[in-house]
């Protein structure tokens, strides 16, 4: 589904990604871990071109999105993204947050879009917040809405950029529960997170990144119980 | 102090006030239109547009309004463009105001959290859609109070065009001073009129601002 080859990203003189190669298949749940500054968020943001890669190629569903002539907006409709800071639209109700993109981008009519939105809100248990504004919600509720907003476009893959890092500890669970449910439904997910418990439980594959490279990857059992590379061992010793 | 001249001359003040308000409204409207273009030029990625807009803004903000007014009023006829006084006044004021409005709009747009742009993009929205539905509505809340202030500033600054003979509030006050041989009292009257307008406007703006604060605050 997503094939990345030799991906590089430089910010001025800082070489953040130094040649990433990875192939992600449909239905996979890939969790990316690594120390801060290892380039994991940058990598994720390159996948939907929120960051323009300096070199390398990304192929999504058979189309090279790093091709200069490609209109990335088409692929972004199929790649949802959930941000650390939620980034809900503060001037719109929850319902409008969810229905805006389907209506304007996919030209779904209002009734249909709202029906889908209410279905999603019911799934995440926030049906009663449809007409609230984001600032009236808790962090956990905001993030669940942000996930619903991404889902409303019925994407083929969702990118999660540290979705629980900005949350109070008691709200992390409710967001992870929604993500687990998505995982069980077969959604393809690429997740940057520090939640090792979640990675162990939900991931099909754990990717350890450090200094702009993929150091080691594999099934969570192998990575967590029997890491091969000294840097993986060192990192896991610090966080577990 | 003797204000008995008002009985005879009050129409001077009312007529002057009318012209002052017309000047301010036209100047701000034109200033906003020109300011929007300047702001868009300034945030665009095109370097030439950038330089044009930045030079304009810096030059206008770096020279006195009086000089700009004289250049328009005396300079344009020199190159064959003859404008009615009132129009010359409006043009000078709006050219001046546009530079400040452009900075207000640019700051308002850039103050919108960049996560908003990213979220909209990640949903497949085009740049234009993002501006229209996400950035501009939020920028508007940042811009409106400052724009209201600009309107108030223009009302006050417009007094300077009395110098080219436009019969606005300040000019008419001068006329009354000459006619009555009272140099002081008419000035008190215009000062009060200016103050009442600007004070009322700033109160109204505060009201509008509070109305718009629904769903605001952090993300």
From TrEMBL, chain A:
Assigned GO CC terms: plasma membrane
Q: Which top-level group of life is the source organism from?
A: Bacteria
What subcellular compartments does it reside in? Cell membrane
**Cross-referenced PROSITE patterns:** ABC_TRANSPORTER_1, ABC_TRANSPORTER_2
Primary residence: membrane
**Gene3D superfamilies documented for this protein:** P-loop containing nucleotide triphosphate hydrolases (3.40.50.300)
Q: List residues of the ABC transporter domain.
A: 2-236
**Topology in the lipid bilayer:** Peripheral membrane protein
Q: Which family does it belong to?
A: Belongs to the ABC transporter superfamily.
Q: What is this protein called?
A: Polar amino acid transport system ATP-binding protein
Automatic annotation (TrEMBL), chain B:
One GO term (biological process):
amino acid transport
A single MF term (Gene Ontology): transmembrane transporter activity
**Where does this polypeptide localize?**
Cell membrane
Q: Does the keyword Transmembrane helix apply?
A: yes
Q: Which PROSITE patterns match?
A: ABC_TM1
Q: Which residues form the ABC transmembrane type-1 domain?
A: 17-205
Q: Which Gene3D superfamilies match?
A: MetI-like
Give the membrane topology, semicolon-separated if more than one: Multi-pass membrane protein
Specify the protein name: Amino acid ABC transporter membrane protein, PAAT family (TC 3.A.1.3.-)
**Native species of this protein?**
Caloranaerobacter azorensis DSM 13643
* Phylogenetic classification of the source organism: Bacteria, Bacillati, Bacillota, Tissierellia, Tissierellales
